[in-house]
């Protein structure tokens, strides 16, 4: 149990750290450029881990509905959801941007009710209410907004909309993955590989449709302003180390306990944000993060 809790905390810390390299990369080039590169790097590394035989076996399952549900979940969660989240981090900063990730369980709960006929208890609605209150409170806090602007992050409507859309897509992607597992019971890493593969392909298509951004790919590979370095570090801490640790955690801890520890992400982001950007940790940020975490725990343990 202790090793599982430590692993869950390391998972959350890894994801918290991963936010910052992606934020820095997205400040230097468009998030539509960051996304396909980090997904491609992650997919290549995971392909080496799984080895060619496993990947080939997965391709032969392509006639199964579950295979395509995993594919769509990758597009919705990684391509669209993470793309919006990266844009949110650039506008709002990691402190508030990470708080919006608390809305993902709300999205997942509603989508589970709609698509999987899962019943929501009254505690779930209370959890959703607390999360929405926390996000709304910090989003519209004038004193917190002034402080963020002093450190280079604007509290604007565009960033808030990106944060909401990102969380919704991530929650919806999770539900699609859950549905896919019922149709195609593969190893979790194999499911991640399918999601990364199709997310990577779709994100390159999105980039191709925005051809004016293609010169930025060369900018990245020349490692101008250390952009490539940030993307590599973000890929290591996010899709690779974070996902791998989370899979190990879920094997040795009850799912509700593991997800509750993962919900600590907004709180763990605060000290890293302080170290990276020298932005003070305000009472509003602490209370909003604590309220969102409480809401997420209520939602997770009752769904």
Topology readout:
Layout: H1 2-28, H2 31-60, H3 65-92, H4 94-100, H5 103-115, H6 122-139, H7 142-150, H8 157-183, H9 188-209, H10 215-221, H11 227-252, H12 255-262, H13 265-277, H14 283-302
Helix pairs in contact: 1-3, 1-11, 1-12, 1-13, 2-3, 2-9, 2-11, 3-4, 3-8, 3-9, 4-13, 5-6, 5-8, 6-14, 12-14
Task: Give an overview in words.
The protein contains 14 helices and no strands. The protein is an all-alpha fold. α1 crosses α13, α2 packs across α9 (about 190-210) and α5 (about 105-115) runs antiparallel to α6. It has one domain (about 1-300). The model has no long low-confidence stretch (mean pLDDT about 85). It is globular and about 55 Å long.
Helix content: over 70%
Terminal Cα span = 22 Å
Structural class: mainly alpha
> Helical stretch count?
14
Q: What is the 3D shape?
A: globular
Task: Give the H and E element order.
Answer: HHHHHHHHHHHHHH
How many distinct domains? 1
Number of DSSP strand runs? 0
Question: What multimeric state do the chains show?
Answer: single chain
Low-confidence stretches: none
Strand content: under 5%
Overall pLDDT: 86
Largest sheet: none
Radius of gyration computed on alpha carbons: 19 Å
In short:
The protein has 303 residues and is mainly α. It has 14 helices and no strands.
List keywords for this structure.
303 residues; 84% helix; globular; mainly alpha
